[in-house]
Write a structure and sequence with these properties.
The protein is built from 1 helix and 18 strands. It is mostly beta strands and 220 residues long. A hairpin with a 2-residue loop joins strand 1 and strand 2.
Amino acid sequence: MSQANDSILVTPGSGATVATELINGKEYQAVVLADNQGQIHGSLESYYYATPTVAVGASKLYLDIFNATGSGKIMDIRGIWIIPATDVALTGALGVRYDLYRTSAIGTGGTAAAYKSATPDVAGGNINPVDTNNANLPAGITARWLPTGGATIAQWLFATYAPGEETATSMAHITQYQNIVPVLTVGQKLTIRENSGILVKQGTVAATGNTKFLVIFTLE
């Protein structure tokens, strides 16, 4: 990761050298963007967590991601995308409600995520670094598909709905990769500090359909 490492006084004839770019005969100052923690935009090590497909179900626990004490990392959730399956001949009558929670304990049961697997839809889902030069995940950062226990809910954050229809002409086709945390891209990041995590859980109303998820997160 990179952080801004200097500041300069913009005083003609003194100070550090400022990078510029010549455009149409004029020099324009070249800049890089930094966030509120001094991280250079685009420099944080990023990872994907892609899950298998599963049939939806009332109150189903889909996935939890946990950042255990001692990981030495702060996790920022950049997006959680719902991906309804459109290659199954099934028509859903109801939309599916997905709730996002903060958790205070790691999930149990289910299947732990694989790391850099070459198998599509591997059991437990698969975590991949965006850049192969990224460091391996700390042992304290884990993901679990279909946990059956643990994942103690500490806070309800919000809910969203996605269609359950699975034909190519349905709303499920139109809303592929629906991000359920878009409002957080304009303010603070959805930050997961040590000894906390997130959980995606279906609402109490039964529905039909099959779905998977894609989570993108960064570490700092």
